[in-house]
Amino acid sequence: MSNNTQGQGRFQRAMRGDGTVTDEMVAAVRPPGLSPPVAHPFIYEINTWAWLESISVEENAQIDLGSVPKRHWDEIAALGFDSVWLMGVWRRSPAGIRIALENPALRSDFQAALPDWRAEDVVGSPYCVRDYVVDDRLGGPAGLSAAREELAVRGVRLILDFVPNHVAPDHPWTTGTPELFVQGTAADRDLDPASFVEVGGRVLANGRDPYFPAWPDVVQLNAFDPALRAAAVETVRSIADQCDGVRCDMAMLVMNDIFARTWGSRVGPAPGSEYWPVVISAVRESHPGFAFIAEAYWDLEWSLMQQGFDYCYDKRLYDRLLGGSADEVRLHLLAEPAYQNALVRFVENHDEPRAASAFTAGRQEAAAVTALTQTGARLIHHGQLLGWRVRLPVFLGRFPAEPADDQLAAFYRRLLAAVADPTFRDGRWQLCERSGWPGDNSFENLVAWSWDGATRWLIVVNLSDAPATGHVRAPWPDLRGHRWQLTDPTREISFDRAGNDLSDGLFVRLEAWQWHLLRLDRSPERGNND
Q1: In sequence order, what are the residues at sequence separation of 6 or more whose Cβ sits closer than 8 angstroms to the Cβ of residue 130?
Q2: Has this prediction a pTM greater than 0.90?
Q3: pLDDT at 17
Q4: I need a surface site. Which of 151, 296, 397, 486 has the fewest CB within 10 A?
């Protein structure tokens, strides 16, 4: 692609002889229009196939990534997103589609989500990759290049997928280089046909994780094989030519200890190096500044961060917001800043139920305020802002018709307008102390934190189904001796308080699942400021 070729040339000219990565080198491969990345980005996940289908219906024309009307890119940029994750752009697998259509459980899922579904709606799983080439029906490589340019001129980065653990059974590697896969035998296939498949005359293992049955539509790559790791490096480099970052599906599955536990003697002893440091360091030699995001579970986030990931999913916060207590949330937020700053916060994504259906009434908004004002990356899923309730199986290429929840949509508009403040991207986050009175422990249901940057923000959320009262201490000594205007743009309220009261402990009373998202501004001086 022309932009990337020019960028790689600038990169080569900027490279220092000792191999050091400099700021000039990073800038050389940055698409025109993009500023340096923010520390705490907002990411918008789009189900690419279904999104383009909905635009095609709206436009009464076949729309691909290269022909998306500009107003759609404008709308995304206007919402304040720093990156767009176009989920599922790679070539889908005909073999995977056939397997999906023959699966009764999947057909039931299709029926529940899309009652009028037809066979042509089953476009295949985006995680059953036929090849890392943009699917022709989405506009091919040229369409993606055009989409990236549209985003870049609006200051928005592009994130794409990489699936390290497996590929589709009709991926070119299965016949061209079958030694890259976990091998099986004819006896394995006969004894356990749900876990092994014959491809091109060889028996290969189906992809899996250590806790669940094999996935029938994918075949398992051998993460211990040096040749596979080399192929993965080249694959991710080719992806990096086309975007600014990659979301790595089930990233923990190729960690040495996890992979050894899953496959045992079939793959032999673990190599001396881990998979991800090999891949990430090699890719960043040619693409400095390229972002790596891990879908991660099982408390392996810190380990993956140590292996080179910029951000890892924060499933623990999600689970605690969904069904835990305020104290559990607060304890989670006590972790070290280096860990907190590299987590991806969310209340829904394509793997989880829609927030509007998963969270009880009122709790969704409190959870969204909590998740989207934390440090680290913040992820919002297409349809979340409208209150969609149907989780679309990733195999389907068409959304069901769903009405928007106008009240919830208005809430998200106000919330996104508030967090558009640059402080939420490059400021300093800090957990705040709160306290109560003897005989009243309801303050324990309050969780509070602050942001300090070009502006200051104090956020307090009642994460319970009962009223909560307490004092919250703002962490800034220089508030003393002045009066401050506290404004919550999500609730359109404003009040004046003395700085001493803020430092000693702001009195807060919040009803169930309510919050204060307060911007602090100096009030005009008038008389006694205490």
Answers
A1: 90, 91, 92, 93, 94, 95, 96, 124, 167, 168, 170, 171
A2: yes
A3: 38
A4: 486
